[in-house]
Amino acid sequence: MAKFIKSDKVSAWLEELGQKHEILAPRNEGDAIVFKPYDSKKGFNIEREATAPPKKACFPQSETLVEFSHIKDLENPEKVALDVKETIPDSSWVVFGSRPCDARGFTMFDRVYLNGKHVDVYYKARRENTFFITLACEKGETTCFCNWVGSGPSDPTGSDVLMVPVDGGYFLEAVSDRGETLLSSSMLEDGGSKQADADKFRADADQSMGEAQDLSKAPAKLLEAFDDMDFWEAQSAKCLSCGACTYLCPTCYCFNITDESDGVKGERIRSWDNCMSNQFTLEASGHNPRPTKAHRLKNRVGHKFSYYPDLHDGVISCCGCGRCIKSCPVGVDIREIVLNAIAYEAKEKANG
Ligand code: SF4
Ligand code: SF4
């Protein structure tokens, strides 16, 4: 199904969708563009990729998993029962204006949290109730490399509706069955006459990305360089361990769990974790198996470009959004590190 919406009708369409779903849309917050619950007075900004991805739609920065309370038996004070209430989310969300890399990023979560040995019920509840209306990119920014990792500026993977800018508005294509349900509004016109414009937009965008680098050797080469800490120290020399790269990454899915309690009742809370922090692997004994930033950066890059692909049919766990490059305060570029690993020659070989 293909539809067309005039640019000046988009806000009204969002308000209509908002009668059935919560809407998350990007808008300006200071110098940043961030996804927030849609507010018609504040509008939205889909002119460029949002500073932070809409990761929180299915994986909130912090969420309560269970609420618990201790119930004391006053007749038998030594007996304390524990009452536990699971807090599975049940609202339905539409993420509007995410980019193809953002929607595709969730397919990397799916392999771990939905299709693995254990299903994450919290992620599942949100994922099944979250719809993505994704905006195709006109051209890549200098930090974008989605075409290196098997994707592209109008890749519909992970989206429910793909929006393509055309003269006077947007061509809307349903990508999934549930995407069709979002396109039933009477505000939308038939999109047939705009198909050719949309196809040209997509072809021009693909062209703008330039030639993709071949990363097929990355998994094996990263393993080859695994024990060469001189190599990893050189790659991580500038890193400040600030964690911006992990927090802003649409495919980083690690979390930590803490209990907060006043002694009678409390909550078990899950929050994003950050593998670039020295506390990520710090053990209670004081031993840390990843004691330096070189060890930590090796793990971050190795996980995305080697260990994850080895476990998941060769799929690279990076969608090429470039946010880690854009947001790194000291200019660490994950593309350079992967290419350096691909060009890596073990010392013994290099010496002769
Ligand atoms: S590693 Fe960097 S480029 Fe890749 S998905 Fe994460 S933030 Fe985007
Ligand atoms: S954003 Fe840059 S400086 Fe900060 S942890 Fe990541 S690589 Fe290091």
From TrEMBL:
<dbReference type="Pfam" id="PF17179">
    <property type="entry name" value="Fer4_22"/>
</dbReference>
<protein>
    <submittedName>
        <fullName>Hydrogenase, putative</fullName>
    </submittedName>
</protein>
<keyword id="KW-0479">Metal-binding</keyword>
<dbReference type="GO" id="GO:0051536">
    <property type="term" value="F:iron-sulfur cluster binding"/>
</dbReference>
<dbReference type="InterPro" id="IPR017896">
    <property type="entry name" value="4Fe4S_Fe-S-bd"/>
</dbReference>
<dbReference type="InterPro" id="IPR009051">
    <property type="entry name" value="Helical_ferredxn"/>
</dbReference>
<dbReference type="InterPro" id="IPR017900">
    <property type="entry name" value="4Fe4S_Fe_S_CS"/>
</dbReference>
<feature type="domain" description="4Fe-4S ferredoxin-type">
    <location>
        <begin position="230"/>
        <end position="260"/>
    </location>
</feature>
<dbReference type="GO" id="GO:0046872">
    <property type="term" value="F:metal ion binding"/>
</dbReference>
<feature type="domain" description="4Fe-4S ferredoxin-type">
    <location>
        <begin position="307"/>
        <end position="337"/>
    </location>
</feature>
<keyword id="KW-0408">Iron</keyword>
<keyword id="KW-0411">Iron-sulfur</keyword>
